[in-house]
Amino acid sequence: MSDANRNNSSVALGIDIGGTKILMAAIDNTGRKLHSEKVKTSCDPAVIADLVDNFIKSSGLEYGQIAGMGIGIPGTVDSRTGIVIDAPALKWSNTDIRKHLCAKYSFPVYVKNDVNLSALGERSFGNCKGSDDVFYIAIGTGTGGAIIANGRLVEGHAFSAGEIAYTLSRRDMEAGLKNDAQEFGIFERKVSGTALAASAEKLGLTPAGLFCEFQKGNQAASRIIDDFMAELSVAIANVVSLLNPEVVVIGGGVSRSMDCVLDRLNCMVSELTPFEVRIVFSGLGEEAGALGAAAYVLLTGIKLADQEG
Amino acid sequence: MSDANRNNSSVALGIDIGGTKILMAAIDNTGRKLHSEKVKTSCDPAVIADLVDNFIKSSGLEYGQIAGMGIGIPGTVDSRTGIVIDAPALKWSNTDIRKHLCAKYSFPVYVKNDVNLSALGERSFGNCKGSDDVFYIAIGTGTGGAIIANGRLVEGHAFSAGEIAYTLSRRDMEAGLKNDAQEFGIFERKVSGTALAASAEKLGLTPAGLFCEFQKGNQAASRIIDDFMAELSVAIANVVSLLNPEVVVIGGGVSRSMDCVLDRLNCMVSELTPFEVRIVFSGLGEEAGALGAAAYVLLTGIKLADQEG
């Protein structure tokens, strides 16, 4: 299909490949969701290609309707070439997932870091819609971050920008803590679903249960949540002082239990940085990555259309 | 003069208005310095306009040769309007310095934060030439920062991005330290020329003398420098984890005494973040701001030329 015809294709596909599941979404060029699916993940690129193809077939879409496909990966991606440099959750290293999909389709396929795509999703359809200066923090099994500045993703020199997980304090340094790209970062060991689950387990609770008990005034739960909030508010305040975003969006699984602490978090952060900011939760939930991957296709299309115009 | 003729004008002026001095430079469109001057500062926009006019006259330039003028201000600037929102060192608040200069000249006048312009200067002519992902830290009387990402300045939602001065640790929070936009930031109270001078004074030394004594093995000086290095390396490592810059450039007056600790700083930072980075000193010294202000004019010109092409 020629590029001219492709411009008439109006559906974008977004595929979010996680460590446990793959979320897939098809949206039209207004952002309306046409079809979505959630399936068990695979680390085998050929199997993933089949899952994607099954998704397209079950969506009832014709290939000709599809403008392109965005793919989110939990790892470091050279987003110019689409090569996955490193994705520990999938056991991928220098993996060319794009090759497996491009072979099947004539539409363009883009591969990017999943947290970066979630941030784009929030900016396109979620709770920071239209903002040019955003920090997105995903508190899930691990904790990741993404930066939008001047309306564009900041990917960094080696495609690793946003990694709040590796931030540390002088106290951490003096305690001899180390950051290793293959391991959880120093901050992530304190603030993540995994860290909360470990603390909650000692009280016989899940992370969600921990927030419930905190609301009921349980002292042991409160101590854990107070600690979590102190670490998180300092980290967010430092990002706000450094990047001066308009909005900080909190996503990831843990954010869905955090309603009861959002006001307090906004208040704590405002005490720690002189700059105003709005802290909100993800508006897209677990589909942020897939919708962001599809949004990237639309944004790329818009850019091309502008340039051609 | 029409815009078409203006494109033939090949000289850019850069004016860096500081709290104690004004540095002025004229460069040609290859970046070659044609003329520069340093004069005592003034807080009176009318006096500054006269100083700038004297500079142009003494440079021997014709007005028609001048493509534009960039002005760096030590404070927060709405860089779309050129209004100086706040510049404590000049006692300016909502000051329209641009109006005073535009009245005299037909060429465009741009007003921006001085540290941001210094970063642009380094990227155009200095030690991170051509890099698209840079963090610049100026350690002078105070400590400021600037971010270049995707080849562009990151100014932030309220033109306040880069403010590493306000970063803090949980220990700082627990000690009840506060950040106030009108005062030195929490980090700046530990890492700045002012902080070093206060520590050095107790030993009867200047900051430069402190680094000399450190090199000679003076234990009291070493304790102060060790503390300074610990704070600085943690702060830079966190910026590197968050922004993944290719280069961190250290400028400002204190950097000129820091030759003896650069290797150690590179080593300490590499222990604290998993991402590679190159830490270098400013290549432009105290003229970074003025040269960066002039560079901004050239960059703006290039952008316009591209768009017109």
Description of the molecule:
The first copy, chain A, has helices spanning 3-6, 45-59, 97-102, 114-125, 170-174, 193-201, 207-215, 219-243, 262-272, 288-308; strands spanning 11-17, 21-28, 33-40, 66-73, 76-78, 83-87, 92-95, 109-113, 134-139, 143-149, 152-154, 247-251, 278-281. Chain A has 309 residues and is of the alpha/beta class. Chain A has a 5-stranded mixed β-sheet with strand order 3-2-1-4-8. The first copy, chain A, starts with a helix and ends with a helix. In chain A, 50% of the residues are buried. The model of chain A is unreliable at 1-7 and 303-309 (pLDDT under 50). At the A-B interface, strand 10, helix 5 and helix 8 of A face strand 10, helix 5 and helix 8 of B.
Short description:
The structure is a homodimer of 309-residue chains. Chain A has 309 residues and is α/β, with parallel strands linked by helices. Chain A has ten helices and 13 strands.
- Quaternary status: homodimer
Basic shape of chain A: globular
Q: How far is the N terminus from the C terminus of chain A?
A: 21 Å
Low-confidence stretches of chain A: 1-7, 303-309
The helical percent of chain A reads 25-40%
Largest interface: A-B, 52 and 52 residues
Radius of gyration of chain A: 20 Å
Average pLDDT rating of chain A: 93
Largest sheet of chain A: 5 strands, mixed
Helix-strand string of chain A: HEEEHEEEEHEHEEEHHHHEHEH
Name the strands of the widest sheet of chain A in spatial order: 3-2-1-4-8
Structural class of chain A: alpha/beta
The percent range for strand residues of chain A is 15-25%
Q: What is the overall number of helices of chain A?
A: 10
Number of strands of chain A: 13
